[in-house]
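lol ok so funny story. i was supposed to be doing the assay writeup but got distracted and ended up predicting the structure for this chain instead. priorities right. anyway since i did it might as well share w the group, maybe its usefull for someone
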Amino acid sequence: MAYLEVNGIRKSFGKTEVLKGIDFSLEQGEVLAIIGSSGSGKTTLLRCLNFLEFADEGTISLNDDLLYDGVSEAAAKKKLKNNDKLLRKKRLHFGLVFQQFNLFPHKNVLGNLLLAPTLMAKEDLSFKQRLHFEKSQEFASLKERALATLDRVGLLEKKDFYPCQLSGGQQQRVAIARALVMNPDILCFDEPTSALDPELTGEVLKVIRELKDSDTTMIVVTHEMEFARDVADKVIYMANGVIEEAGTPEEVFGRPQSEKTKSFLASRKNL
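and the output, tada:
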């Protein structure tokens, strides 16, 4: 069985069916690139994987552990919604880097990285232990991990800066570091360069390439065709809520079988 198994994922919003039965698998350390036009369901798929949305049907399994079963969707959704701790535990398997960075403007770079792991560490502590947590060895370890992660994305010297003092590319790298510091099993990117000027795109793509070199398992929704071809182990082309074509980069980009895939790739070449 593959590291990640996604089977039969369907999702509707009202009468609009956005995902119409998505199946794919991913091995540990692989990079999956998901390409397709706006409205094809790419972001909704990522949100279902990260439990920001709940699939109406289908299953999600990670490392032989069934994370979600949409066969009993109503019961599963109710169970997750009524159990914040369980929902957070499931979400920890996936780190999500958004298009718009979503950094907290009132916290500096280090504070942005430390917020989530600190809140999680305090969850089971007494009131008195929470008051003194920042003086504990556990907090010191969290801070050390956050600093090491900032160094990994080349921003250690910016640890005391606030988001407004950073370029768009730097803010996105902070967002990547914030996801990494939670040690997710799979790191997901939703168009990580779409909000950046072209000259800043390269520094973010460089970080993602370096993550691949360290065997980080990733799912990247991207409009950067050259990047997808160079970095991905597998490529999925989505159209109208279905996987129109899937394969290696050589197969999808070099020998596409679907007319929709051919048309999409031709349109990207003309941009």
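The first strand starts at residue 4 and ends at 13. The chain has one domain: 4-269.
back to the writeup now i swear
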